[in-house]
Amino acid sequence: MSQPSSGLTAPLAGTALSSPKSWIADFAMLAAIWGSSFLFMRIGTVEFGPLPTAAVRVAIAALFLLPIVWLRGLMPELRKNWKRIFFIGVLNSGIPFACFSFALLSITTGLSAILNATVPMFGALIAWAWLKEKPNASRVLGLLIGFAGVAMLAWDKASFKPDASGVAPGWAVLACLLACLCYGISASYTKRYLSGLPPLVTAAGSQIGATLGLALPALWLWPARMPSSSAWLALLAVGVVCTGVAYILFFRLIENAGPQRALTVTFLVPVFAVLYGLLFLGESVTPWMMVCAGVIVCGTALSTGLLKLKLGRQAK
Fold first, then answer.
1. pLDDT higher than 90, residue 35
2. Using the 8-state DSSP alphabet, how is residue 307 labeled?
3. What is the pLDDT of residue 18?
4. Domain ranges of the chain
5. Are 221 and 49 in contact (CB under 8 A)?
6. Which tops the pLDDT comparison, 91 or 125?
């Protein structure tokens, strides 16, 4: 999945928020699409390996998006801002996609998606440290609750002994959390340096940057045996639909609904990811996972200001 998200608490500069009817369909569609990305990455990474999976995904997305940018006459915007957009692509797509692909070798798609739901929490933490968006007591409590939920969920997977996949579950969990940290950093970077750019330019340019960043490592680690047609089709789906189309929807959602509302899509993504895992991969969902997911979602909602508690004097 692999989705860029944010801990931002205010709309992008110059953004006029639209009515809910104009963005709620994008919100639901994006959650369903990003939920399926874990399924497709799981299918692809078994045969391609983590880095080639991430590289093929972003390369397909770049090939899909770049002609649209050119047809709409947005190439000057891309050329003007290419350095920062390419950088955000590595941080917001390249590294996270590689991390999730690695993690999916050892842990389930549902667990990966639940961990991905911590993205807004990391975003809030980074915004606090970098953009000086000081949280009030309710948000600090949310951060503590959210990270407690992560610790509860990760405790069962704390083993750093490789399993049958050759990857230790503990490293897989840490890889997911590193991806979420990258998303949080990239959100604050985007707010500071890329506000106001057309969503299509940001989406296409970021995938080009991620492709360039992953190209050499992916070629070095390319599988000796040609992957099957099903693995190629999975990466085609995750590249075109879950990355190309989804990123257009995501950046449009930020523009129309504001970053705080847009980031809450990560709450709904695990629902679809768990459902797809149950239906197509035969994965199981334990009651403990659901309890931990609830704790994480509550903490994230508090840390981003979606939910508020009256704890003494609240900063406005």
1. yes
2. S
3. 53
4. 20-303
5. yes
6. 91
